[in-house]
Amino acid sequence: MGLSLATRFRARGGALRGRGWVTRSKTFVKFGMVGFTGTIIDFVIYNLCISGLGFLPALAKAISTMVAILNNFTWNNRWTFRHRRTTSSVWQRLGLFQLVSLGGLAAGVVMVQVLHATYGDGSVHFLFLDVAYYNLYFLATIPVVMIWNFLMNHHFTWKHARA
What we know:
Blueprint: H1 5-11, H2 20-52, H3 57-80, H4 90-119, E1 123-126, E2 129-132, H5 133-157
Antiparallel strand pairs: 1-2
Helix pairs in contact: 2-3, 2-5, 3-4, 4-5
C-alpha cells in the first residue's frame, strides 16, 4: 500500500519548501489564463447551440466543450507547458489531454444535467440583466472542471521526463 498524501507532503518538506510551489503557481496561473480563453469559447458556442440551434443544455455543453478542448490543448502545449521536458510526442499529449478533458467534460455534463433536471428552464434578474438558468449551470461547472483538468494534466499529460 502507498504512502498517504499527508505522509508524502511531510516527506517533501511541505508544499512551501523550495521553489517548486512558485513554479507550480505560475504554471497554474498560465493554465487558468488559457482556461479562461477556452471558457469564453465554450460559453459562446454553448449559448449559440442553445439559443441559435435549439439544442438541450447538456448536448450544447458537450459540443462547446470539445471545441474549447482543442483550443486549450494548443495554447497549453505552446505556452503553459512549453518548457516542460516530456517523453511523449505531441500526439500522445493531445490524446492524454483529450482523455483528461473528457473526464472534466463528463463531470460538467452531469452537473448541467442534474441542475437542469432540478431547476429547469428560466432566468433570474441580476442587476439589469435576465440571466438564463442554463448560464448559471455552465458557471457552476468551472471550478470543479478546472481543478480536475489542472491536476491531471500537470501530473500526466505534461509529466516531467525523469533525468
